[in-house]
Amino acid sequence: METLAERLASSERIVFLTGAGVSVPSGIPDYRSKNGLYTGRENPEYLLSATCLQNEPDKFYAFVRDNMYYPDAEPNAIHEKMAEIERRAGKKVTVVTQNIDALHAKAGSRNVVEFHGSLYRCHCQKCGMMVHSEQYLESDKHENCGGIIRPEVVLYEENLPEVAINGALAAITEADLIVIVGTSFKVSPFCNLTDYRKSGSTVFAVNQELLRLPFQYTMIQDDAVSIFKEL
């Protein structure tokens, strides 16, 4: 941890790669753990697929509305510390996150690449109008035109938006320090981002589960909240 603190202090360009484990301490479940979103559900990937949205929009909406939204969730020490590091003079910090809960932005991080989109940006598929998430939680039918509203998240069977890929790669390729936090780092293409790191960059991983990465890195196998509180 002391070495990580030293590298955070000395590095000018930092990228945090964050996953569901960062938001679990804020009361948002992950997907595949013992108490995760997918536990006990039959074919949950279908419920979060483009096919389900298109063919059974009521089923899609009910699942997303009842299980995905945590509007009262607050950032925890991990989100807050990353935002604090970004505010330090001379630092260019980018958070590239798999999470769709907008907690990094809520904590004050300004350079956030939401790799899989955000539940808190919604639009009508018929007229294209942007819709507040509060309105979506009341109904998925757009009152203006009757179209189906959807959150701007990447569903199964959909491609990642180019803006997310380009933003992530731009940050990774110039980073002096990359810190992987709260993710098993197994889901492609997110786990492939480190392939584009520049020569000489340093990689740390902070995660309760041991990661096995095919390159040199420093593993801190511990509770990320405890670690970030001490940084």
3D architecture notes:
This is protein acetyllysine N-acetyltransferase. There is one protein chain. The chain is α/β, with parallel strands linked by helices and 231 residues long. It folds into 2 domains: 1-28 and 75-116 and 159-231, Rossmann fold (3-Layer(aba) Sandwich), CATH 3.40.50.1220; 29-69 and 120-153, SIR2/SIRT2 'Small Domain' (2-Layer Sandwich), CATH 3.30.1600.10. Helices cover 31% and strands 19% of the residues. Strands 3-2-1-7-8-9 form a 6-stranded parallel beta sheet, sandwiched between helices. Strands 5-4-6 form a 3-stranded antiparallel beta sheet. A hairpin with a 5-residue loop joins strand 4 (117-124) and strand 5. Helix 5 packs parallel to helix 9 (224-230). The longest helix has 13 residues, at 162-174. The radius of gyration is 18 Å and the shape is globular.
Explain the layout of strands and helices.
Elements: H1 2-10, E1 13-18, H2 44-47, H3 50-55, H4 57-67, H5 77-87, E2 92-97, H6 103-107, E3 112-114, E4 117-124, E5 130-131, H7 133-138, E6 149-153, H8 162-174, E7 177-181, E8 202-206, E9 218-220, H9 224-230
Parallel strand pairs: 1-2, 1-7, 2-3, 7-8, 8-9
Antiparallel strand pairs: 4-5, 4-6
The CATH topology name of the largest domain reads Rossmann fold
| Uncertain runs | none
Q: Report the end-to-end length measured between terminal Cα atoms.
A: 8 Å
CATH-scheme architecture of the largest domain: 3-Layer(aba) Sandwich
Main beta-sheet strand count, sense and barrel state: 6 strands, parallel
Mean pLDDT metric: 96
H-E order = HEHHHHEHEEEHEHEEEH
- What is the strand tally? 9
